[in-house]
Each structure stands twice: as C-alpha cells, then as structure tokens.
User: Fold this.
Amino acid sequence: RAELAQSEAPINIISSEALWFTDPAAVKEQVKDQTDLRIVVYLRRQDQYLQSLYKQAVTSGRKDDFLSWRAQTGDRGDYLSVLRGWAGAFGRENLILRAYERDDARVDVTQDFFEAIGVDVDLFVDANGAYDRKQALAIAGRFAEAGVSWFEEPVSSDDLEGLRLIRDRAPAGMEIAAGEYGYNLGYFRRM
Assistant:
C-alpha cells in the first residue's frame, strides 16, 4: 500500500495468485485512492485447475482421496462465487476475464495481459542466464513474436561467445544485454 501511495507511475500492476484467499473488500480498501483500476483474471478449465491442485496436495504428502480433499478446499475452483465477490467490490465492468490453458503455445499471457488492459509497452526479459545457446535462440524468436525488444542474459554472462552468437542471430530489433554481474574493468574488457 505504501508503494502505491508513493508511486508516480501512470500505471501500477499488482500481481497475485491469491484470488481465492483474499477478501476483495479488504483489497478495495487498500487501493481506494486508485481511480483507474482493472482486475485481470486468468482462469483455467475448472476440472484441470482442481486436478492440478489435488496433484500438488498429493505430491506434498496429503493422503486424502479426491472427494475428501475437495470438501476441504472451500471456494477454490468455484469461479462464480469468487468472481461475484470481486465484482461486488470493484464492479463487473472492472473485471477482465481471460481463458488460460497452460499448454496452449498460441497464447502469450504477457502480451495478452497488456492488450487486455489497453497498454502498449516495451517488453523486456531478463533470463538470468537460464538457457543454453540453442534454447536461447529458439526462445528469442518466440519472445520477438510477443513483442519483446530487450533480452538480458539469455545465456550465462560468462559465456561471452554464446552472448555474441545470440546477439548476431537474434531477431531484428531485439537488443541482447549482459554485464550486471560485472564488477571490474577486466570483466568489461573481455565482454
């Protein structure tokens, strides 16, 4: 709340996976000074969502059968009752509902989210060296399709040849960046 009050940004985005556990009226009180507020909700098919939750519960050691477990989950998975609470607090017109299927490669959630709220932004990705060279080139193409124009550390900062390769073969208009872990002149000379 303090960060929102101090922010001079024209748009503030609050992200939460706690739709089920959060009291919409309490959230409304916390953001009461925000004049233009929209809530974007991505919903999976209910059966797939519940199946995923149950699988997580079993993996973490729960021994209940599905029906016993389901009786303990309350509103989780009951989209209608939860969304009624949010619509009651913020108004139906401020809820934007989107379908989400985890394995649907045709939907880029980031791009879809910004389109849903009507914001045109430059998208940057910091991969923190998570990919090998082949993966980085493949994902750079997908990121470019989604409008990403800045790809930071697609491979490890220590892989200078890999960074050069990615820079040389990245899609047109995509900048490749690295160096945040540099701490001396020798590092930057090598880079």
User: Anything to note?
Assistant: Residues 8 and 34 are 12 Å apart (CA to CA). The longest helix spans residues 46-59. The first strand starts at residue 39 and ends at 43. DSSP finds nine helices and five strands in the chain.
